[in-house]
Every structure is written in C-alpha cells, then in structure tokens.
Amino acid sequence: MAVFVSAIASEVLQLGWDSLVAGIVLGVVISSWRTRAAMAAMFGVCDGAAALLGRACLPRAFDLPDIVPLMFLMVIVALAMRGRRGFLWISPVLFCVDNFFSFVPPAHASLLACASALLAWSGLCAGGLMLKAAGAMLHISRSGDVRPSRDPEHASCSRAS
C-alpha cells in the first residue's frame, strides 16, 4: 500500500511541478487574488482534462521534453510584459500539454487535477508574496534616501555642474 501511494505521489509531482513554477512566475504578474484563484482552478481543470484526453486519444505514451512548458512560459510572460495580459489565460492550456502525453490512469486524473490546482495556487501565492516583498524593499530603499533626491534645489545644482 505504501509503495502504491508513493508511486501516485511521485507521478503527481512529476506532472504537477510545471504548475508550481508557472504559478510562481505568474504570481508576480497577476495582482488580484480573485484572478489568482481562477488561474489555479484553470490549471487543475486543464491538467486533469488533458490527462483524461491523452489516455483516450493516444494508444501509447509519448515523452515530451521537460523544457517545452518552460519555453511556453517565457513566451507568455514576454507577451504579458508588453501589456497583453490576455495571453496569461492561455498558460494553463499550454502547460497541460505534458499531461496529455503522459499515460496517467483515469482513476488518477482527479487527484492530478486537485494536486495541480494546489501546486499552482501555492506558486501564485509565493509569486504574490515575492512581489509584495520586492515592493516593501523598494519602499524601504526610497525612505532610506538611497536614491537621489528629487527636490528642485538639488536638481538645479546637479544640472549646473
């Protein structure tokens, strides 16, 4: 029994790590908690559905390189940084590709969906906390006079020299 549970946990972590990594990166970009919750749910639904569809459509397992989801993430974040935030909603669909090509038993698909949503939520929260910590550090640096003063008297002196 312990070996069986260990095998399932290993399978879930192997297929769900990309949701965690994507969540961390997207958590920095997405500021609304409601949007983060919806994104985590999308990751879970897409990963579970892809595992079921892959099992139904593919006669045998095909191994997808692990770098493919990370390349998708880089493209999506680049588009989001250019102001096209709608592309962020494509990320759960792109990150479920590895689950489509995995050969997960149908009984494990619901567990995979729940674990993927939980891992994505954890990553989104961690990314949000990193954003908040970075904002606090920026505020501390501004209040500690690390940056040059912007008052007009100092500005005219710096222009004169």
Helix content: over 70%
Order of helices and strands: HHHHHHH
The pLDDT mean sits at 76
Domain unit count? 1
Q: Low-confidence runs (pLDDT<50, min 5 residues)? A: 142-149, 155-161
Distance between the termini: 77 Å
Q: What summary fits the major beta sheet?
A: none
How many H/I helices? 7
Rg over CA atoms, rounded to whole Å, is 21 Å
Q: Could you give the count of β-strands?
A: 0
From the spread of the alpha carbons, the general shape counts as globular
Percentage of β-strand residues = under 5%
Which structural class matches the secondary elements?
mainly alpha
Describe the structure in brief:
By secondary structure, the protein is an all-alpha fold. It has helices at 2-29, 33-57, 67-81, 91-95, 97-100, 109-143, 152-160.
Description:
The protein has one domain (2-131). Helix content is 75%, strand content 0%. The chain has helices at residues 2-29, 33-57, 67-81, 91-95, 97-100, 109-143, 152-160. The radius of gyration is 21 Å and the shape is globular.
List the topology elements.
Blueprint: H1 2-29, H2 33-57, H3 67-81, H4 91-95, H5 97-100, H6 109-143, H7 152-160
Helix pairs in contact: 1-2, 1-3, 1-6, 2-6
